[in-house]
Predict the structure of 2-polyprenyl-6-methoxyphenol hydroxylase-like FAD-dependent oxidoreductase.
Amino acid sequence: MQPRRVAVLGGGPGGLYAARLLKLAFPASDIRVYEQGDPDTTFGFGVGLAAGTQRNLERADPDTLRDLVTAGARHDMTMQVGDQLVRVRNDHLVGVARTELLAILQRHAEKAGVQLEFGTRHTAGELDAELVIAADGVSSATREGGGFGTRIETGAGLYLWCGAGFALPDAVFAPVRTEFGTFVTHAYPYSGGRSTFLIETDERTWRRAGFDATTTALEQPGIPSGASDEISLRYLEKIFSEQLHGHPLIGNRTRWQRFRTVRCDRWSAGNVVLLGDAAHTAHFSIGSGTKLAMEDAIGLVDALREAPDAATAFARYERSRRPAVERMQELARRSQLWWESFPSRIGLPVERLIVAYMSRAGNVSLDRFARTSPDAVGTALRQYGGQPPEGDLVEWVLDRPLTHGGRVFPNRVTVPELERLHVDLRDPWSAEADALVGRGRAAGGVLVTGPPVREAVLTRLDVAERIRLETGALTAVEAPAGLRDDLAAGLVSGRTDLVRMTEEVA
């Protein structure tokens, strides 16, 4: 189709990128972006662009990608627990300052002929446009106007975004135990000699530290909406002083939040279509809102280019993008749950912990991680098996002996008679899962069973991990032999002691 007038609500990465791609695809169209903020005002710190995202942007718009990569900072990744540290290769990841990202996208949009209008608030209904693209973020007023079947799920953990005025040498994941509980930072460098520090904790620790009170205080009348939680920042910069190298934490509308996962039954209504966080969100530990929004823009413009009318284009866009988005949301859901329960695992050697981290959502196999980071994985396997690995990696893992409670098992697939514990739930840290952990404690040892599908197997590995860590009971997980890679990763990650493989088809 050839749209005459297109209005884009929201001047974030997704909206700006969609506007540029539309103008390149339809030079005769009038494309306008409406952003309620000022062009030089933004919040946030750095944005990460992974290798897969870069490949997608390269295919769609190599000029924009070239400027983003030039402005960014590449880095590897480390995990630090106390005085233990492991480093893994990940230099395809590029960190870009959010301010620079937006400046580049604004410049390229205007270069293509897009009109940018800042400083005024608009609704979809008041705009004279054939198509309206709502890229107005996680709190989208367009989406909340109704018609999209919105569902929002709020996470249990708390987090805040802050920054520091120096560039870390690598991304770093580091937990710190305090008198209140455990805080963990995910920090990474980005352009301009700065770093993002994202800090998470559980609700009990947050309340013990008094941060529920500081959060409430910021919500009182007379407090500017852009104020940061300075009390939290000053405390956190003390406990993360080693990672900060003496630098202070910088706030920018920095407040404790709970992550909201947005899902919509429909991404369009009439002449309005949702894009990016307005349509869906994925937890920041694995799903980048910037990545998903810019890839949405590519998919939407491709659909508009190929379809005869807006309704057909919107349906095609949603049909093409929804599977990838939902897969990312499921990976992000598992990653979010893993991070919200992170403190329970920090007794593992850091090399085994990095294996647990990489395999937490089920999208990186043990073999794949071993190919990219042989030193870290090799050390983890020696810690697990007592000797250097050889031959087929998964078979080697399954063949290692185990000593537990005075009993010796010749390998990890020899499972004694144990109480069977059937698990068929979505959240391994729910109240229902708590009851299963209690049963495992009473039994003294369990074989965790359930449906023979991969998603269910990954969940029962998490339940088995809880039983193993919280009760010390011998745990075994039953799963189809076709999922042996997942079972091997679970063994090395400390999620289970033993596994039993069946002939069922996964």
